[in-house]
Here is the input.
Amino acid sequence: MHRRDFLKIAGMGSAASMLVPSFAFREAAKKFNIGSTFILWGYGPDNLEPALSDMAKLGYHSFETFGHVIEEWENNRGGFSEVVEKHGVPIVSAFCMTDVLDPSKRKEEVKKLLRWTELLKKNGGKVVEYCPSSIKREGYDYKEHKKSLIESMNEYAKVVTDNGLVCALHPHTGTPIETEEEVYFVMENLDTNYMKFGPDTGQLEKGGADPVKIMKDFMPLVEHVHLKDFEGGDNGYLGYAPLGEGKVKVKKILSMLEDRRDKMAGMIMFELDSDRDIKTPITEFEAAKLSRDYLMELGYNFKA
Here is the structure.
């Protein structure tokens, strides 16, 4: 209805009284649940329980861990679902890495990814946050590997999709997909019927890319997000920072995601990397709390 017609019917006073609560309701309805990834607490199976304990206390709605962590708990530690149920934070996604440059490794890498996909699905997960394995970046030129890059990732994504989960590409520093140019090349050449997008805002910023621009351009493909800030320096977090303390336009990105959230298979996940060589200035719980409190200031809710 045109504004002048509305005012004719309702009158200026009535219109104002109707618009305010309606606007407030829409704003409140936009706020989505936010989870947390596992990496702040470490990289191995021993870090799972401490991470889940802190996440539960802070009210994060879900979590993500590594494929190899699920496998270790499932096979050698009494079951993955048991420890998850103990802490009451459900798993949504698993971070899984495979080689994309050496075709001779692909058969074994497919088997590994398939194991992780099946274990994630068995335990209620929905998204494989897929990342190419790390490489030496010095002298690397993606143009020399573009055939293997695209073919391997299309094959990996089809394996995940055929098993009922979503595969979302995670560009990452220190891997074959780090720079803005590399991100655009792969996302514009992959078969997006199978490979979707799972960006990490902090990784993109650190890699010299514009997270806002990239997310805007590929928003229809976004299925999962690592929400991470970046400030640089040797701070114990590989240059990353609690949300709101770095350079990433976190508020802008969250606003952009409001209309996409209901279409995503995964979630928006707080993330802060840990540095194995430099002691962090605060505990993992305190760092995760800083980011949670920042999000609460923006109106996001966490479990009691």
In short: The chain has eleven helices and ten strands. The chain has one domain: 33-297. The longest strand covers residues 91-98.
